[in-house]
Amino acid sequence: MKRLLLGMTLSFCVLTACAPSPDKQLETAKAAATAGDYRQALSIVDGLPSDSAAYAEAQVLAPDWRHRLETPVRPSDVGATPVPSSPVVAPTPISAVPTDPAKVAKVVENAREVQAMLESYGLDFNGKYPTNFAGLAVEAKKNKYWKELKNPLNPTLPAITDHRHPLPGAVAYEFLGADKAKYHIHSWDGQSKPVLGKDGKVFLVDGIY
Questions:
Q1: pTM, two decimal places
Q2: Burial of 99 (0-12, 13-18, 19+ CB in 10 A)
Q3: What is the pLDDT of residues 42-67, one digit of tens each?
């Protein structure tokens, strides 16, 4: 009996040691998404443990991936006639939406809401900011200063996205600097172009503690 239990324990340890960490799985999912395989990316993040930081970050990225998976690819989008059996190798472009100035103003409000959450985080961590939005989300929800945001231009799209993948009506947090004391918040209009301020320049929240 002892030998059986020992064997089962060793087998569990071997399986645990061989299993990739949540962070590694998330990196694999990101690579799959970059290659246009959103189905594989979503399959990976669905298996992440819900108590991991990687899972929290995945919840920020997954809505964008899911939308791109569900958006049909047109020949004009990829520059060539698609072959039915060929995998998609380029991200699916998101269709532009009409730009209503009043709704674009709401995008700016979302950027300011993210800034408010970041400043609360900075107070809790002695002037340091999170390296990604998922880190902010975990702390903000735990400490009751989280704001649930909606995309004012297209409710089917996420309000928060990765700064490297603009979406109509979305905003994005970009961590800057090894000292963790500076950031940018980007925002995009209905054509996925940077929102312009009243001075005609790109609106960018430039935060530094």
A1: 0.61
A2: middle
A3: 888 788 887 777 777 777 778 777 77
What is the spatial distance between Cα 151 and Cα 57, in angstroms, rounded to a whole number? 18
Residue type, 121: Y
- Helix ranges restricted to H, 73-100: 75-78
Place of tokens 């060929």: 86
Distance of CA 120 to the CA centre of its chain: 20
> Helices 22-34 and 38-46: crossing angle, nearest 10°?
160
Task: State the Cα–Cα distance between residues 183 and 131, nearest whole angstrom.
Answer: 9
Residue identified by tokens 């324990």 is 9
Predicted confidence (pLDDT) per residue in 62-98, tens digit: 877 777 777 655 444 444 444 443 343 344 445 566 6
Q: Where are the domains of the chain?
A: 19-73+87-93, 101-208
Dig out the tokens for 19 from the structure: 């299993």
First to last CA, the chain: 61
